[in-house]
Amino acid sequence: MTVPLPETADTLIRVMLATTLPYEDGALTYRIDKQELSLAEPGQLVSVPLGKRQVTGMVIGEAAGIAPEDKVITFKTAIPYDAALRLTPPMQKFLNWVAQWYMEPPGAVFKMAVSVPSAFTPEVLPTGYQIVASPEQASTPRRRNILTALSDMAMLPQSAASIHAMTGASASTIKAMVAEGLLKEAPMASLPSSPLSGLLNRQKPLTDEQILAADQLTAAVDAKAFKAFVLDGVTGSGKTEVYFEAVAAALRAGRQALILLPEIALSQAFEKRCLERFGFSPRLWHSGLTDARRRAVWRDAIKGEPMVVAGARSALFLPFSQLGVIVVDEEHDHSFRQQDGVRYHARDMAVVRAKLSGIPAVLSSATPSLETLVNAEQGKYEHIRLMNRFGEAGMPEITLVDLTKTPTERRRWLSPPLVDSIDNALQNQEQILLFLNRRGYAPMSLCLSCRERIVCPNCSAWLVTHKSAGQLRCHHCGHFSRFPEQCPSCDVEGMIMPCGPGVERLAEEVAFRFPDARQGIFSSDVITTSAKAEAFFDAVYKGEIDIIIGTQMIAKGHHFPGLTLVGVVDADLGLSGGDLRGGELSWQLLTQVAGRSGRAEKKGRVMMQTAMPEARVLQSLVKDDRAGFIRAEKEDREDANMPPYGRLAAVILSSRNDEKLTAFASQMAMQWPNYEGMTLLGPAPAPIRLLRGQHRVRFLIKAEREVNLQRAIAQWLNEVKIPSRVQCQLDIDPVSFF
Ligand code: ADP
Ligand code: ZN
Fold it and tell me: Could you give the percent of the chain with pLDDT greater than 90?
């Protein structure tokens, strides 16, 4: 007699966990019940036990090879979430791609895609009541009237509260009607989260130049194939109006659209523009959302609901399953680069995601990054240009104020020519923006007795005076202290002097020189919420502010029709610094600031105070010679084999123990295998030698474009053993070098 073998009750699967595991695929093996096998497809999200925790995972496939019978390992059970919660194959590929490129554990990248744990359990819908009989079937006239009053509501279950509001029926009457079979309990439908009305038709006609641009984008969206575009147009040329057409095309096709914006640009003004164009607000995605909102956006994204998401960089990791287009607005902006955790660049990865999803990507900017321009030149990206400002607005006239010829007074920061122009503008009741990219009162404080500068106890950085708060603050680690009476070094009292200007100090000068003018500071210390930003803009629109004093926060995307004069208080900030992109960054920032002026009928003026009037950046701005500036920057980079012609990667070592760190760094340098086409620079003390109490040392690896930089670094790091209490951070394609 043969005994049938017991049927195996389950199957083994590999699951990638949303946490950092020391395995290359970031995965572990789990069992899954056989009847749930249909939920074991790659991409399916599951819940799995890990030690005492329950974590989210993603199925990556069946586990090959079963443990030998004499060595049975009991695997823990994976519990699938509902079938809708599955990442598409392009999304799975995208997550892997990001992990490999930035040399991050796959689980750490996956975690960014499942950042809303509350979204995994289905919504519990509140109970409502639905009509299941006609009024004639009611046993009393009262109940008949109730049914008649509700008949408009057709099949939609209503809450007891709304039935009471419509008919006056009490809870007990409703219960009785359920018992009589006139009503039945039913879950209420969740409200459609963003009704996409039929307002996809454009209200404002586009100009010829805009139509040409928009047609290229919509054709690409309709073609449902990858293509990358640079939408390159002067400030105010209508880039937003143009890419809205691409968004509309995606919506018409029943698909989803993602617009990435620098966080600060996610203003109500942007929402309003979407509302005007589409008839509904975009779904927002940024760090300040409530969990309920995050949950709703995440679930609609994975369910493939047609939607427009306007979000900060992390929105790129939303699990859209029907994405039709990705727009990156202000693509040159460095805030698209995440600087901790997984150090990714959302603009670069947006193009990768578009490619893997077979959809177009649109990179929009008035000052595209050199990387993007070179990609366009090499034919990788389609270059679309908008040369004209919309409507009457002309480009502002830019002049330099040579501070070596017309210096400012001692401890003052506005030179006579700028003061005159401000006076003029005030007399004409026009608005003025004074731009100074320095928060606080003074960037540095010096003791006049011992000549020591006051530095942060945790960082090798000067403490910044914030006079309104009566504090010294570190802009790197957040350390703060009361403004000291006596010098921390020599103990002498009353000799500490703030040096240099910040926006607060500039405001003092403005108040002194123009006592009748109304002024407002726009910096991250003052404008801490979007509500405060809106209130500020409102005051500007209403003409309640004459002089705006702002940091780079004010530079982006805002329209101030009454603004005619922009004064750049220190155009040299950022010009010396040795950062590879210093010149480019400065050019972008100054162009953006200049673009704030003269956006309506009145001609705009920009005055830039400088002690280096011959600097390339400034000359190119005055002569309106962008092409010349770009050409010269490109030549410099090409000669030095710097990005975008060569590649860079940084390795940052940090430790509380300086000696251990230095010893290990030189040992690491000795173990560098001298790869061909690559140069190791360093170890060198980081520009911020001490950060949050950690000593820091940097390596920079320069490589030819063609070599596999990541593989070389991986091999090198495999050879060295990183001691405990030394941290090693990788920064692939770095954009900052502190
Ligand atoms: P950019 O994004 O290039 O800075 P915007 O799209 O913000 O330019 O356009 C600048 C201003 O001109 C906005 O107020 C916008 O509403 C307006 N505008 C641009 N194109 C048109 C158009 N075709 N019809 C009406 N208004 C337009
Ligand atoms: Zn500090």
Answer: 63
Supply the mean pLDDT for the chain: 89
Using CA of residue 555, residue 558, residue 561, residue 562, what is the dihedral sign? negative
Distance of CA 178 to the CA centre of its chain: 51
**What's the rounded Cα separation, in Å, for the pair 249 and 239?**
16
Structure tokens at 577: 């610094």
Which of the listed residues 212, 230, 239, 241 should we mutate to test ligand 1's pocket, taking the one with most ligand atoms within 8 A of CB?
241
**Residue 622, amino acid:** V
* CA 454 / ligand 2 centre spacing (Å): 11
Instruction: Tell me the HSE value of 463 on the side-chain side, using a 13 A CA sphere.
Output: 27
Q: How many A from CA of 383 to the centre of ligand 1?
A: 20
- Nearest Cα neighbor of 394 from 688, 597, 152, 144 is 597
Distant-in-sequence, close-in-space partners of 63: CB < 8 Å, separation ≥ 6: 12, 13, 14, 29
Distance CA 600, CA 489 (A): 54
**Highest-confidence range of 271-275, 380-384, 461-465, by mean pLDDT?**
380-384
CA of 207, closest atom in ligand 1: 23
**Site of tokens 């914006």:** 261
How far is ligand 2, taken at its centre, from the CA of residue 504, in Å? 21
Confidence check: pLDDT of 7 > 60: no
Of 411, 484, 481, nearest to 452 by C-alpha is 484
User: CA 567, 573, 575: angle at the middle one, nearest 5?
Assistant: 120
The token duo for 396 is: 């502002």
pLDDT in tens, 530-568: 788 889 999 999 999 999 999 988 887 677 889 999 999
Q: Tell me the sheet residues that pair with 455.
A: 462
Nearby residues of 440 by Cβ (< 8 Å), 6 or more positions away: 464, 465, 466, 467, 473, 502, 503, 504, 525
Q: Which atom of ligand 1 is nearest to the CA of 273?
A: 16
Nearest to 549 by CA among 445, 468, 462: 468
Query: What is the DSSP track for 514-580?
Result: -TTS-EEEESTTT--SHHHHHHHHHHHHTT--SEEEE-GGGSSS---TTEEEEEES-TTTTTSS--T
Q: What is the pLDDT of residue 10?
A: 67
User: What number of CA atoms fall less than 13 Å from residue 397's CA on the CB side?
Assistant: 4
Are 310 and 273 in contact by the 8 Å Cβ rule? The answer is no
User: Residue 361: which of 290, 259, 269 has the closest Cα?
Assistant: 259
Give me the sign of the Cα torsion angle 65, 71, 72, 76: negative
Helix, strand, coil percentages in the chain from 3-state DSSP, rounded to 5: 35, 25, 40
Instruction: Give the pocket of ligand 1 (CB within 6 Å).
Output: 204, 206-207, 210, 233, 235-241, 390, 559
Q: How far is the CA of 566 from the centre of ligand 1 (A)?
A: 21
Query: What confidence tens digit (pLDDT) does each residue in 657-671 have?
Result: 999 999 999 999 999
The pLDDT value given to residue 4: 46
Question: Could you give the CA distance from residue 543 to residue 558 in angstroms, rounded to a whole number?
Answer: 15
Contact status, residue 565 vs residue 425, Cβ threshold 8 Å? yes
What span, in angstroms and rounded, lies between the C-alpha atoms of 460 and 694?
10
pLDDT tens-digit series, residues 54-94: 999 999 988 876 554 555 567 899 999 988 899 999 999 99
